[in-house]
Amino acid sequence: MEEPSSAHEPREHHRRARPVTRLIGGVIAVAAIGVAAFGSISSASAGQDITSSLTIVAPAAAGGGWDTVAREMQQAQRANGLTANVQVVNMPGAGGTIALGNMTRLEGRANTILVGGTGLLAATIQYGSAATLDDVTPLAVLFDEYDVIVVPADSPYETLDDLVAAWQADPGAVPWTGGGSFDQLVVTDLALAAGIDPVDTTYISSDGGGEAVAALLNGTAQAAAGGYPDNIDQIESGRLRALALIAEEPVAGIDISTAREQGYDVTLANWRMLAAPAAITDEETAQLTELIEDSVATPEWESAVGRYHWSEHFIVGPDVAAFLQTERERITRLYEEMGQ
């Protein structure tokens, strides 16, 4: 997906503020984990060459989307001898901002790279993070992963229009869920496309895609936005009904009409990226960029792209910074529409 500007302009009427939920105790706990992991990275990375030793930081627990990217990148490099030693370190917490903050303490150490994406950018805005993507060296945008709008198989909503009609009639009476901050952004953008004030929407935040599916199936929520790879098994098994794919255009291999095809111009993609610490040299930036380009050209990475239904969206060089600025403006506007 390219980075088009949203067609929706913020409305001028008064917005009711909705506080951002902050799980302070949990953040402190994961911060402690992050600092411990950071200590091992810092000591291991000193004086190391990129091709002899590389650490890929996944800013979330094992098993999630960022972790998948890190481990598939690791496998591609190992299988093809691109680095002599590559390890993955998980550093969860606060939507990825714990890992991002720790990366700022690795200035000049080019043999550590961080996985990020739409969710990490969103978290820096949502939590008012002291560390932002301006404090690291963006290297590449890798691909897009698309959300899908789903309802339980026995839902009365047969189409996206059915769901939107009920939502418009009583926005608070159609509870939504999703597995992360990105999913809430998608619901917000869909609300705007449907002429619904996002502040009036009931959104139940779930801790991951599995919890979101459970909320749908037990009746806590009536609709959800979630990553297509996270929902494909439930869709194919008949437990969930897919109403729309959130993508700029139809995606080969995914037989679900886009929201745009159905009249709702919602195209926000969950892109994934890689970044290095700040203050690395131009030569090191070029070396890391070449390593990433070589990694995504391997059969192992190409297999992962097909397996996880990723859509190629590869950007390197100065265009990465321009892309991130456009996305930052777009996501900031969506949070403003949420009243946050």
UniProtKB/TrEMBL annotation:
The chain crosses the membrane at residues 20-41. Keywords: Membrane, Transmembrane, Transmembrane helix. InterPro entries: BUG (IPR005064), Bug_dom1 (IPR042100). Belongs to the UPF0065 (bug) family. This is Putative tricarboxylic transport membrane protein.
